[in-house]
Design goal:
It is a single chain. 26% of the residues lie in helices and 32% in strands. The protein has 223 residues and is α/β, with parallel strands linked by helices. It has one domain: Alpha-Beta Complex (Spore Coat Polysaccharide Biosynthesis Protein SpsA, Chain A), CATH 3.90.550.10. The two termini are 29 Å apart.
Amino acid sequence: MKCIIFCGGYGTRYNKNDKRKILKPLVKIKGISIIKRIINIYSKAGIKDFILLGGYKIKDLKSFAKKIKGLNIRVLDTGLGTETGGRLSMVKSLIKKENFFLTYGDSLTSFNPKKCLNFKKKIKKNYIVSTHKLTLPYGVFKMNNDFKITKTYEKNFNIFINAGFYLLDERVFKYIKSKNDSFEKNVIPRIIKNGKIKFYGFKLNFWHPVDTKKDRFNLSQMI
């Protein structure tokens, strides 16, 4: 079974004002890079086959992959600035009629691949997306296009965010129309609208992005 990881973004917010840029998945948290920590999540569950979808600083990503022993790690150069749907489409020929994991290389979670696979048996041919509950400490308004408030929510309003760990299969490629497609903004909505495949949420107790250096600092304090 394969695990595909998005690793090609510029990391614009993280690298802001820095002369020396870094590929965000290679940022280290307590001496271990984010991408290595993500790979460890899957390898401990028996996943040995990884495809890293690179672009920005591709040489650094390839250098990282060469240092990993005991796993089958391939790095694909999916281009600079390519949207996530476009990046994913480039592995179509490598995916047979099988399930595969997909995730992003810039966040850490409590994701458990084995539990996810057990959940997959219940939902059969449908898809899984990890979710994490965020509690907003503010009052929230719902407004229409004219900024008329149509509904209010009190403090401690709960929302479920997309935590970015998926379990999919080869049918997903039918919903990618071009290399300019965003997986999140274009592909997922198409799947949901079509209705033949349903997404089921897989709740996570912990999720933390590394979008900025403050995120890295906070995460380092937690680990």
